[in-house]
Amino acid sequence: MKTIFVQFKCSPGMAYGVADALVQEVEEISEVYSTSGHYDLIAKFYLSDDRDIGHFVTERLQVLDGVADTFTLVAFKAFG
Predict the structure, then answer these.
(1) For the domain that residue 66 is a member of, what is the CATH number?
(2) Average pLDDT for consecutive 10-residue bins of the chain (80 residues)?
(3) 29 located within any domain
């Protein structure tokens, strides 16, 4: 299982809509938070080992209505 975090820049006024769409439409999501700073949201996803991260982000996440930009982080190890 691979863990990735994706930050989302949303079109003005669309952050809550994007968060709702992520929760409703993307089964790989674990959680999503609104954030301050350069990005509006950050979400955690679990992907199967054979899943291509690039295809997942570009074909499932970047195409959601209201998503203006994404920034993806790949997690290597969880501590604690």
Answers:
(1) 3.30.70.920
(2) 98 98 98 98 98 98 98 96
(3) yes
Pair of tokens at residue 73:
């982080």
Count Cβ neighbours within 10 Å for each residue of 11-22 and write b for 16 or more, e otherwise: eeebbeebbebb
| Rounded Cα gap, residues 45 and 43, in angstroms | 7
Number of domains in the chain: 1
DSSP code per residue over 20-75: HHHHHH-TTEEEEEE-SSS-SEEEEEEE-TTS-HHHHIIIIITTSTTEEEEEEEEE
